[in-house]
Automatic annotation (TrEMBL):
One of its GO terms (molecular function) is metal ion binding. Belongs to the aldehyde dehydrogenase family. Its EC number is 1.2.1.3. The active site is at 253. Keywords: Metal-binding, NAD, Oxidoreductase. Pfam families: Aldedh. It catalyses: an aldehyde + NAD(+) + H2O = a carboxylate + NADH + 2 H(+). CDD domains: ALDH_F9_TMBADH. Residues 20-482 form the Aldehyde dehydrogenase domain. InterPro entries: Ald_DH/histidinol_DH, Ald_DH_C, Ald_DH_CS_CYS, Ald_DH_CS_GLU, Ald_DH_N, Aldehyde_DH_dom. It comes from Penicillium desertorum. This is aldehyde dehydrogenase (NAD(+)). The keyword Transmembrane helix does not apply.
Amino acid sequence: MFFSLPLRQLYYDGQVHAASSGKTFQTINPATATPLANIQVASNSDADTAIAAADRAFPSWSQTPAISRARILQKAAAILRERNDEIARIETLDSGKAFTETSTVDVETGADVLEYYANFIGSGGLKGETIQVREDVWVYTKKAPLGVCAGIGAWNYPIQIALWKSAPCLAAGNTMVYKPSEFTPLHGQILAEIYTEAGLPAGVFNVINGAGDVGAYLTSHPTISKVSFTGQVVTGQKVAGSAAGNMKYVTMELGGKSPLIVLPDADLENAVDGAMMANFYSTGQVCTNGTRVFIPRSMKTTFENRLLEKIPFMRSGPPLDEQTNFGPLSSASHHEKVLSYIRYGIETDRATLLCGGLEKPTMPQSLQAGYWVKPTVFTDCTDSMRIVKEEIFGPVMCVLSYDTVEEAVQRANATEFGLAAGVFTKDLNQAHRVIDQLQSGITWINTWGESPAEMAVGGWKKSGLGVENGRRGIEAWLQNKSTLVDMSGVGATFLPS
């Protein structure tokens, strides 16, 4: 069988290694449903070896001065930017996302986070506190790395998520064993090689490949001190339960069913553009998508008409073509899952199908076997519908009408998720009041989706534990040590004076 890319192996202790399992799996180009490369699967023994390499590297890396660590990470960020388009093309082949997106967002935003944390530690950001308790008694605190950490990546933003995990981990002085998603694994070895080229010591960043069983073995390993996971809520709950039972630190970035509330005074163009960004960017495969769009009843028809006028600007086509801005879904199984939700919305929920649906878009012959779907909008939706309650993770927007802002807020919060939320309005005082009431960890006003390196992001409720990025993001990769110093010369005693 022809593969367009070479075999991918494991990467640990600073170099490529063949897996001992004798097993491989294929990664598939979602646009054409054809194989891209064979990927070697790590055995438990391979995972043990990679973890041992990370464990050996930890003492030296954790004691490396922060400024020296910063220089290495800054160089890695520079290499990522130099190779941006090359890496973005591989991301497009592996994930199906349009090159117009991967070339401007995926690599760039990952490099931004790497550079942010390099600059943060290089400028003394890991300093502790000094507190005077009494005249002769002081307390000082110190931040210490955790040890060997596990990163479990997701398939929708492969290299970005790998960098969002590894950047603060390595900046804090930890080492990492990283497992990419089996659906989009090609970036793992590329990133490891870039880190090595930048001067990262052998064993500090390691990559093993495989499915959920490999991830489960990695995250339950006794040497692992922390697990950072991005993925589905159900899987995240299992990972978090296993980690907590073994007293490991965890960061969980999970799913959502986020509300986007358009207030009655909102600018129509901005609100429609925001709703499209919140539902169709990355073909809807974004955990923070605002898939529940709440519209004032009086504004519903106008909003929907303008939405229908703009939908044709979503252009499916060859993902590497710079005219394409809407790619396929990531895999055959995910394609079937999204179509099953659309089918349920039509046949069982009985929502009104405004556009899109089950029919494939018209594609060139070379792309007809790919996992394509049309941007889909349901209207006349109710809160009890399955398509409104459950995360679809595809380009499926649900339009819901409301009569009062108070009602919209109450309904927006009536979910087990709490990842993201947004408000569109010209009244910023009203915007802040509504945002303050929404039960979500990531919120936007008059925009949707941007997450700069400086912005801590993380979910409430079942949408996650902890945050990534920003100053708070690195705290999740550190532990605190407090020391009290008595300089009085009179020690505490139980003995009589």
